[in-house]
Write a structure and sequence with these properties.
Layout (H helix, E strand, L loop, with lengths): L7 E9 L3 E6 L2 E6 L15 E6 L9 E8 L2 E4 L5 H10 L11 E8 L3 E9 L2 E10 L1 E4 L2 E4 L5 H15 L3 E8 L6 E4 L5 H12 L2 E10 L4 E6 L1 E3 L1
Parallel strand pairs: 3-5, 9-12, 11-13, 12-14, 13-16
Antiparallel strand pairs: 1-2, 1-4, 2-3, 4-5, 5-6, 7-8, 8-9, 10-11, 14-15
Length: 231
């Protein structure tokens, strides 16, 4: 997944009202859109190096969007809207070794009355649902964690994936670690014990877990390597 334009470096000043960040670029301060509704725990230290994209859309009130934060010399992708693009790119290239037996990919597929899953893969009568979760939290060295806040939406997705399994779908939860400094992944039980407990139950009901980190470059972000996980 490549960025349309080269990213602009800056220095983080503060985040506020969830969707706003002030960033210093050279001698100027700009307000950028923060495309992440999570707590972004551990990433918001004043002075952290950041990278922004700039939109040329004249109708946008905020021209800049926060894309990457550097934390302890490691890059972290914070734009949750890019998660599906990164995974979609990998699916198109069939570079995810655990799931290659499909011919068609559909995005944002409705299931039930009020749920949409990120991807539906199909081949003949075989059907796979994949739900993607963006991971940025790392409280201990080399270890990524999810979630970074209580997630009622994540809880709902787990419940609906279990229902989909009963209807004959293969079900996958894809933890995309938008970091390049983690060697393993664990659940943040202390942050949202209800979510973590349901996830463990879902695994017993044949929920498949996929966990990959990302590789960053000046051009973009792409899926990198499979990460060991403990559920």
């Amino acid at each position: 997944m490549n960025f349309k334009e080269r990213l602009i470096p800056g220095e983080l000043i503060k985040r506020y009202k969830r969707f706003f960040v002030d960033v210093k670029i050279g001698n100027n301060t700009v307000t950028a859109h923060c495309p992440n509704t999570g707590s972004m725990m551990g990433l918001l230290k004043k002075g952290n190096r950041v990278w922004l994209s700039k939109s040329d859309n004249p109708k946008r009130k905020l021209k800049y969007t926060l894309q990457i934060i550097e934390e302890k010399k490691s890059k972290v992708g914070v734009n949750t809207h890019l998660s599906n693009k990164i995974v979609f790119d990998a699916l198109n290239k069939k570079s995810i070794k655990e799931i290659k037996n499909y011919d068609f990919i559909k995005q944002e597929v409705k299931f039930g009355e009020n749920t949409r899953f990120d991807f539906l893969l199909t081949k003949n009568e075989k059907k796979y649902f994949i739900e993607v979760k963006n991971v940025t939290l790392s409280r201990n060295k080399n270890t990524a964690e999810f979630p970074d806040a209580v997630t009622s939406r994540g809880l709902k997705h787990l419940s609906e994936l279990i229902k989909a399994k009963k209807k004959g779908y293969e079900i996958y939860l894809f933890f995309l670690i938008q970091r390049d400094d983690c060697k393993k992944f664990i659940l943040a039980n202390d942050i949202d014990p209800e979510y973590c407990e349901l996830l463990k139950k879902a695994v017993k009901k044949k929920l498949n877990i996929l966990c990959y980190d990302c590789k960053f470059s000046s051009k973009g972000i792409k899926l990198n390597r499979k990460i060991e996980y403990k559920i």
